[in-house]
Amino acid sequence: MKRIGLIVPSSNVTMETEIPEMLRRHAERHGTGWTFHSSRARLHTVDVESLAAMVNDGERCAAEVADARVDVIAYACLVALMSRGAGAHIAIEKRLGDIALEASAKRTPVVSSAGALVRTLGQLGLKRVAVVAPYMPPLTKLVIDYLEKSGITVADSISLSVADNLLVGRLDPAALPGYVARLKLAAVDGIVLSACVQMPSLPAVQPVQDQTGLPVVTAATATTREILLALGLEPALPEAGAALGSLPPARRATA
């Protein structure tokens, strides 16, 4: 039985549902078992000041989940880290790992959603993407800048302009195919369907990938992929898009 530590924004209602659902599917396919243990960092409004305060609160959260002797810690925080500038995920993952070690005397791998998204796109060879984000346009630009400084070109994007994080969690994933239909996809390698840990997207991931024939990744699927990799497990489960082993036919032929 693997213990998963989650650090989430206090108003987040998505990662504690989508990640367990994906790992439930992994358990059905591979026989793995999971328990989940969360700590919450305060966040209500998605603005730069609130995001910075939440990142600072993450150190307390890391010590709390480490007390449960978890096997991996997932820091479910994307734009908050990206707002700190290129490569911020590297420093925060190390810092939280050090805090977890101090708290538990156990070296625990830490993955962040920001780092997971960058690394997953790189590992899948997705160098030119289109992005759907729920943020106000200035925050979406922070995400785009972060990806581009990591070597990933953002060819097109949509900002849904929702500032209240609770309202982001109530967005309907059934609307995502319609947003994707408005994107310019002719010259992209893949789609970031939800560049946010709060915007629900899992039910739409496989339909959008099947509809477009392009690899689809989200903050949640990339984070789940890295949880599995950190535990030495195969990142493969059904109906969750390219990050978790379900590549479009054209990609399977060249993989």
Notable features of this structure?
alpha/beta; 2 domains; 255 residues; 4-stranded parallel sheet; EC 5.2.1.1; isomerase; Rossmann fold; Maleate isomerase; Iso_Racemase_Enz_sf
How does this model look, in words?
Its EC number is 5.2.1.1. Keywords: Isomerase. GO terms for molecular function: maleate isomerase activity. This protein has 255 residues and is of the alpha/beta class. The protein is 47% helix and 17% strand. The chain folds into two domains: 120 residues, Rossmann fold (3-Layer(aba) Sandwich); 104 residues, 3-Layer(aba) Sandwich (Rossmann fold), CATH 3.40.50.12500. The strands form two sheets. It has a four-stranded parallel beta sheet with strand order 2-1-3-4, with helices on both faces. It has a four-stranded parallel beta sheet with strand order 6-5-7-8, sandwiched between helices. Helix 1 links the parallel strand 1 and strand 2. The longest helix is centred in the first third of the chain and has 19 residues.
Provide a compact summary of the structure.
It catalyses: maleate = fumarate. The chain is an alpha/beta fold and 255 residues long. It is built from 11 helices and 8 strands.
List the uncertain runs. Answer: none
In one word, what is the shape? globular
The arrangement of helices and strands along the chain is: EHEHEHHEHEHEHHEHEHH
Quaternary organization: single chain
Compute the average pLDDT: 91
CATH topology of the largest domain, what is it called?
Rossmann fold
> Strand portion, in percent?
15-25%
Number of helices: 11
Compute the number of strand runs.
8
The portion of residues assigned to helices is 40-55%
Total individual domains: 2
SS content category: alpha/beta
CATH architecture of the largest domain: 3-Layer(aba) Sandwich
Looking across the biggest beta sheet, what order are the strands in? Answer: 2-1-3-4
**Sheet of most strands:** 4 strands, parallel
What is the CA-CA span between the terminal residues? 32 Å
